[in-house]
Amino acid sequence: MNRKQIYDLVVETLESIQELSGQKKVDVNEDTVPIGQLPGFDSMNGVEFSMMISKHIPMEKIVSLCVSDDGKKALSVHQIVEWLEKLWDVTRGGKKDAKGQ
Question: Count of CB atoms within 10 A of residue 34's CB?
Fold first, then answer.
C-alpha cells in the first residue's frame, strides 16, 4: 500500500464508523483529530477503528491507533497515516520498526 491508499483507508474507515454510529457526516482530512473532533467519536470507537484497519494492515497486536503510545495525546489523521505507513513497511519486510527506527 502506498501513502494515498493508506490515507483513503483511514478516511473511509472513520467515515464508516461515523455513519454506523448515526453521527453527522463530517469532512475528514489530514488535520482531523478523530478523538475530540468527530462527533461522538470516543476511545471505544478508536478500538473499533483499529480493529477495522487491522483487516487491511496486519498488526502483531491491536493497539489504539488514535492515541499516542502513552495514551495521553489524541493523534491526527496525518499522524495515524504516518504510523500505518511504518507498520505497513514492517509487515512487508522493511527495515524500520513500527516506530520508524
Answer: 26
Give me the helix-helix angle, 3-20 and 43-54, nearest 10°: 130
The length of the chain is 101
Phi, psi of 37 (to 5 degrees): -115, -25
Q: Please give the CATH topology (third level) of the domain spanning 3-91.
A: 1.10.1200
Query: Mean pLDDT of successive 10-residue segments in the chain (101 residues)?
Result: 95 96 92 96 93 90 87 95 88 50 36
pTM as predicted = 0.86
Give the distance between the most distant pair of CA atoms in the chain: 41
Task: Tell me what pLDDT residue 93 has.
Answer: 59
Domain boundaries, the chain: 3-91
- For residue 100, the model assigns a pLDDT of 41
Pick from 96, 77, 76: nearest CA to 87: 96
Let me know if 48 is exposed, middle or buried by CB neighbors in 10 A (0-12, 13-18, 19+): middle
